[in-house]
Amino acid sequence: MIELEGLPELVDPVLIAAFEGWNDAGEASSGVIAHLEAEWKATELASFDPEEYYDFQVTRPIIEMGEGLTRSIIWPTTRLLVARPPGAGRDVVLLRGIEPNMRWRSFCAEIVALCRKLGVEMAVLLGALLNDSPHTRPVPIVGSATDENLAQAINLELSRYEGQTGIVGVLQQAFAAADIPAVSLWASVPHYVAQPPSPKATLALLRRLDDLLKIHMPLGELAEESRAWEHGVDELAAQDSEVADYVRELEERKDATELPEASGDAIAAEFERYLRRRDHDGDN
């Protein structure tokens, strides 16, 4: 068990977590944590002992070169960081890790115990999956919550997935057992452009976090990167008629089965996000 010493007094903290690996198509969800860590200048609170949870023949350490011939080994691990977003009125605990290779229940129990010590009031777990959604349409975000009332309160489109799960699904159940409200948000990444990065999916997750937590999420260059990514995929598709035909088929299927996102809840959420961004920019 990790022992936290000199713990800062946190204000109404919420956890945002993502894991590299099976749960992280296109590195879209771990990209959210990396982005927020940099934008909010988060400070590390603790890291897990990799000996406990990782098989180094499966998840190998990495050698990095420093100055001259100096080398250092970067071990696979999971880290907790804390940030105080400007104007948020609450703290955010960020968890960025790699899906462990073993002892998942102990791993999740340790995370839940740490969150109890930190006073975490809610956990938001992020994931990304490969899907047949076209890259030209808004990124679908689905999810699940630890209870139906919470799902309804945040207007969450519930996932109907049944099948194999990753550490995100197991950790959400661990939070539910500990009576800590937990939500998971999953972005759909087009399977024909699965290679990272996926800035459009990362951006979609950040905007959903903004709506969910009512915390200004700094977007940085992600909007521009998302447009450049989509333009690049357009150009690649234009060079292959079969891919272009497939994308058009996906677009037609998507448009035929889904109404435009113009519901009252969607419009209200977008307007609230606009007001938060306007107020935040006015404070700078």
The largest sheet has its strands arranged as 2-5-6-1-7-9-8
Report mean pLDDT, rounded to a whole number.
88
Rounded to an integer in angstroms, the radius of gyration calculated over CA atoms is: 20 Å
Helix-strand sequence: EHEHEEEEHEEHHEHHHH
SS content category: alpha/beta
Count every beta strand, where a strand is a DSSP E run of 2 or more residues. 9
By DSSP (H or I, 4+ residues per run), the number of helices equals 9
Low-pLDDT residue spans: none
What share of residues is helical?
Answer: 40-55%
Largest sheet: 7 strands, mixed
The geometry reads as globular
Estimate the strand proportion: 15-25%
C-alpha termini separation: 41 Å
Describe the overall structure:
With 284 residues, the chain is of the alpha/beta class. The protein is 41% helix and 20% strand. It contains nine helices and nine strands. The longest helix is centred in the last third of the chain and has 20 residues. Pfam families: PAC2. This is PAC2 family protein.
Describe the structure in brief.
By secondary structure, this protein is an alpha/beta fold. Helices cover 41% and strands 20% of the residues.
List keywords for this structure.
284 residues, alpha/beta, seven-stranded mixed β-sheet, two-stranded antiparallel sheet, 9 helices, 9 strands
Task: Please describe the topology of this protein.
Blueprint: E1 14-20, H1 28-39, E2 43-47, H2 50-53, E3 62-65, E4 71-74, E5 79-83, E6 92-98, H3 104-118, E7 122-131, E8 141-145, H4 148-153, H5 167-177, E9 182-190, H6 199-213, H7 222-238, H8 241-257, H9 264-283
Parallel strand pairs: 1-6, 1-7, 7-9
Antiparallel strand pairs: 2-5, 3-4, 5-6, 8-9
Helix pairs in contact: 1-6, 3-5, 6-7
